[in-house]
Amino acid sequence: MKLKYFAWVRERVGKAEETIEPPASVRTIEDLIAWLTQRGEAYAYAFEKPKVIRAAIDHAHVKPDTVIAGAREIAFFPPMTGG
Amino acid sequence: MKLKYFAWVRERVGKAEETIEPPASVRTIEDLIAWLTQRGEAYAYAFEKPKVIRAAIDHAHVKPDTVIAGAREIAFFPPMTGG
Amino acid sequence: MTSVTIRIQESDFDIAREIALLAEGRTDIGAVVSFSGICRGSDGDGVSALTLEHYPDMAEAEIRRHVDEAIARWPLNGVTVVHRVGRLTPGQNIVLVLTASAHRQAAFQAAEFLMDYLKTSAPFWKQEENASGSNWVEAQAQDDAAAARWTKS
Amino acid sequence: MTSVTIRIQESDFDIAREIALLAEGRTDIGAVVSFSGICRGSDGDGVSALTLEHYPDMAEAEIRRHVDEAIARWPLNGVTVVHRVGRLTPGQNIVLVLTASAHRQAAFQAAEFLMDYLKTSAPFWKQEENASGSNWVEAQAQDDAAAARWTKS
């Protein structure tokens, strides 16, 4: 699946997008954040406060306990500040 | 004092303004409406429902029991429908 | 400093120009709300025109009183009210209220407040023309209710 | 029929033109409310510019969802949302929301609703430049509270 990062999450991770293949044990958004966190310092920094991070699956907002099975694109970003 | 009429009050009275000298017994807006009513059919028609009529003294809205002493200009009109 | 513009005129207004005048040279404005009231043509038997009568000496003073109250209630950078008079046909502008503030809620609230009071307190009267003649528009109870909700309890 | 326009663009918008597009050839519109959000320059240590980042594939879909909800809630003739992205300096426009309805309350309410949701749900992020560098604008609890008041209880 494709991951996208925006704003300071993008800056901290150090890239705007990447393609990953998480193991089957990674079922939810929360699981995915935990799995990403142990991939290196940049990820650990980006996701150090997981409660602040917002996520979208296939362009719709989702909650931390949403199951990621079937997702084509998952995005992580800080709370929105548009408008 | 000068009287002014607007909208259908003006149409019913048949004039836009006039100058009057009511007797001293005419103390309030209510009294003035009652006094005008007995001046003729046009006035009786214009003021047939006195509760609907709004009044202003010297360009500020006033209530029926407002005293008219000292007024330079009194206006009568239906409820406003601007905006 | 709150810049205030109040005009009663027969001619049309240009919203973009009024906003530019309000905001010119300022960088403290974060939100501009505009309300334009437009002559509708599709009611019931089809209004073909509106004629707006007003009480010239009182109208501007009455609007000014409500603008001053809005400025006292909300932190506003500027307020513009333009009310047209005379004969207007469907699709034409009737009234413009512009409010500018650092914050959007203040701008929204002040614009709504001013419109509610213009409807019920500003000395303007609408006469409708339709296929069967003309008649004076009746004041609506819902407009009085809308204005009453701003009264401090 | 409610005409809907949603655009995300780097270039500025012209409110008068957007209103004209919305109202063109219609006589059922009685009220148009516009909200423009403007880049402020006078906060604290002086913002010299804002850069707006967004999630292109999601932004329009997310705005569309809220526009559809506004149309379901209020009788609207038209809705226009234009959100700018890229680098903006103080005094420049950021966002435009236009709502048109037969009645003023619907237009006001829908515009406020849409702005509250754009602030908290549309995937846009503001980065501020000031004398000491740049930083991402933090989301404000008051914006979440503003959006929450529209939730049906």
Structure description:
The complex is a heterotetramer, with two copies of chain A (83 residues) and two copies of chain C (153 residues). The mean pLDDT of chain A is 97. The longest helix of chain A has 9 residues. Chain A has a five-stranded mixed β-sheet with strand order 2-1-5-3-4. Chain A starts with a strand and ends in a 6-residue tail after the last strand. Chain A has three helices and five strands. Helices cover 27% and strands 23% of the residues of chain A. Chain A has a single domain, classed as Ubiquitin-like (UB roll). By secondary structure, chain A is of the alpha+beta class. Chain C is an alpha+beta fold and 153 residues long. Chain C has one domain: Alpha-Beta Complex (Aldehyde Oxidoreductase, domain 3). Chain C is built from four helices and eight strands; from the N terminus they run βαββαβββαββα. In chain C, the strands form two sheets. A four-stranded mixed β-sheet of chain C has the order 1-4-6-2, sandwiched between helices. In chain C, helix 2 packs antiparallel against helix 3 and helix 3 crosses helix 4. Chains in contact: A-D, B-C, C-D. Strand 2 of chain C pairs antiparallel with strand 2 of chain D.
The radius of gyration of chain C is 16 Å
Structural class by helix and strand composition of chain A: alpha+beta
CATH topology of chain C: Aldehyde Oxidoreductase, domain 3
- Return residue spans of chain A where pLDDT drops below 50 for at least 5 consecutive residues: none
Residues in β-strands, percent of chain A: 15-25%
